[in-house]
Design brief:
73% helix, 157 residues, Arc Repressor Mutant, subunit A, two-stranded antiparallel ribbon, globular, mainly alpha
Length: 157
């Protein structure tokens, strides 16, 4: 019984250590990924704009309210981003058939082209780094990301 309690305590300590590590390290990792993305793109596309284009491309979102919810940002933040993106010709807004107060947002050919270019640039740079890993490291990384994603989706932080 004593060994079981020690094992549980050790497991809790390891989980606490990992949680602290992730909270401190993930922002740095995300910063470097974002920085690499911004350095690799030829357009003025920001990371949030890339995410908007991706969601529109995948057919995940149709209205600005859908985008705000999917990205967990405010409606005014989405309005500012989409206004700029429309001026750049990356998206097209049109009045909704059902509710004239809402704008339907569609990806333009130029927006699709920007998305492809940005994805190719950022993916290429990340691929260079991933190719340095062993098969086991790649499997472990993928499994770790899947587990972390699963935990985040189950719980709201």
């Amino acid at each position: 019984m004593k060994d079981l309690l020690k094992l549980q305590f050790d497991s809790n300590k390891r989980a606490e250590h990992l949680a602290t590590y992730l909270i401190h390290r993930l922002p740095t990792v995300m910063f470097h990924l974002k920085q690499n993305f911004c350095d690799q793109t030829e357009s003025d596309l920001t990371l949030q704009q890339l995410r908007i284009l991706s969601l529109l491309s995948e057919g995940e979102c149709e209205f600005s309210s859908d985008l705000a919810e999917a990205l967990n940002v405010s409606q005014p933040a989405i309005s500012r981003s989409t206004h700029f993106m429309e001026q750049e010709g990356w998206i097209k807004k049109s009045a909704s058939d059902h509710d004239k107060r809402q704008s339907k947002i569609q990806l333009t050919e130029l927006g699709a082209k920007c998305l492809r270019q940005a994805s190719q640039c950022s993916t290429g740079k990340l691929l260079e780094q991933l190719n340095k890993l062993s098969e086991k490291e790649l499997r472990d990384l993928k499994q770790g990301v899947l587990v972390l994603e699963s935990l985040i989706q189950k719980e709201s932080f």
